[in-house]
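FAQ: What does the model actually see?

It sees only this:
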Amino acid sequence: ATLPPLQLQAVDLRARSSGQRVDLRLQCASEHWKRLSLDGGFAYGDLSGLASLEVEELNPRAWLDRVVQATGARLAIAPLRVRASLQTDGATALTARLEASTRSALLAQGERQFEFPGVAVRAAVRAESPSARITLEELRLGPDKLLEGGLEVAYASGEALGRFSFDIDAARTLSLARRVLAKGKFGGLPDI
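And it is asked to produce this:
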């Protein structure tokens, strides 16, 4: 599948370079988002750097339709707010963060529909030779925090060994599932 065409509007690109580093700032709009801001910079000497991205009212429909279409499902997401950052010391460590949220999402397959009021996720990755840690800091549906946890991977000699752990609030998850199913066309969950 190909990516949809992208036309940028109100583009403001600024770059500054000195003998030691380069800094860049890009701001623009598009039919796919209201405002995108990308700031970054890195040092020539040690290749350390930092980049941050913020997107307001990102409409993922053009990309999601291509992915979901083959499944026969339909996914509708209200505009997203996305924040991401990437930082490296240029030698041994790389850190990335992602935050994304939307006021609602709808997943439909035929007559079945799940509507989720308010979805938010926060995640981070930290890689330092010879290991990496992936952390799901929070998965939230509406006011309910459903999931948090992490995955640690130690890699050496081409092998990956990992430790995986998650905390899930079962009572809140079951309560949310009942509310979602009650609004949909499924009936409900049995009492446990």
